Amino acid sequence: MIDDKPAMNAKLLLCLALVLAGGCVGGFIASGQNEGALATNDWQTRTITSEADLDRVIAQLQIPPTRLDAFVALLEFAGYPRGNIYTDDIKVNALHEKAINAMRACPRLDVVIATMIDRLKEPDDRIPMLRDLLKFSEPYQMNLYIGGTGNRSLDQLLAKINQAVNAAFDPPTVERALRDSDWLLRMAAVNHFGNSPPDTNAWMPLLPDMEKLAMNDDASVRSAVDTKLNSFPGTEKFLDERLTNETSPEVILELLRDRGPELSQRFLPLFVPLLSHPDEKVREDALLFVGSNSKRAPMLQFPFGMDVFDHVVACIQAKSAKERAAAAYALTDIRQLDIDRSREAFLHLVNDPDPDVRWRVAWGLNNQLERKDVKQAIAFLVKDKSPEVRYMTILAAGPQRFISELKELSKGADPCVAESAAQTLDQLAKEKKN
Asked: Looking at 182-191, 223-232, 254-263, which range is the least confident one?
């Protein structure tokens, strides 16, 4: 399940240059929330706590007796999903990339993988080896679906991994994996539940574990469990009861499994209460769902009304900066419901203490740029102390109007903003020639 929730902070957005995909001028690609973003020092592992440690482990890949242990240590450090999560720390991102490149270039990678696959036969090694094989292969799965990675030997290696992993996930192994602390392993176990053997009786003892995950795990796992249980006999009552307790909009949609004209009538009564849920994280997710409404497929766009609008505006006053940022994102998508109240709410956020809130203001006001109060707000934000806020405001208000400001940002101390500003200037220059 791909999560495209848009709430990552401006610096991460800039470093990924998301706003430049398709051109900065006139377009904005919302950022995506990263629930698994690494906090300070969370990037460190038992073996790798510094770049020197990383270099030492990478060097051990060149030595056959230490190669496998080094490879496993690199997987722990930068295997999926850890190494694929971009953080605010550019250095950590670079270390992850360095580790991933080292694994890809590992000498005799085929022998390393073959050894790991062979160890799946050992009962004590099966779960750890499954965990590590998944960490290596998962980032490439989408490439395999669309025709391959472009590297024939790697494709063949990934095919061998997939075959071995599928064979290893028998009912006893799935049962152990469902209870494991590793998110990726639990997700893989859910996806293999009920596969082989196809005999329902072999999987029935695992239903309590699946139901426990459906109620207590994160939204991605809950959604995967619901999908599996929907085709498993005797789970209808459990899934019906799940609807009344589910707090993720995406999972509610999965449970409804209805894409017809009555979807809104069934979905909205379940969704709207989430915007005032006592759990802050639930409210944030609901706000992000509102903000993504126009970006979803037409059949999954909902006619939000003033009840949703009122909740969103109320969240603009939230104590949490993350919730205020999510509310600003949501309000941008539904601002036409009450353009005046929307404008007042965004103008209120001009002085918000958090830059991740302030950079969203101009995007909420860029349909009223001719108003005097909006012009004043834009002028104020273009001089904000945060380079991210200045840059994002310029993008929202029209970068062609702020060439000198972009030049200043392109030479500033913030490397992400400087690079993005320089690319914007290049884009503007190309458009001017054309």
From this structure: 254-263
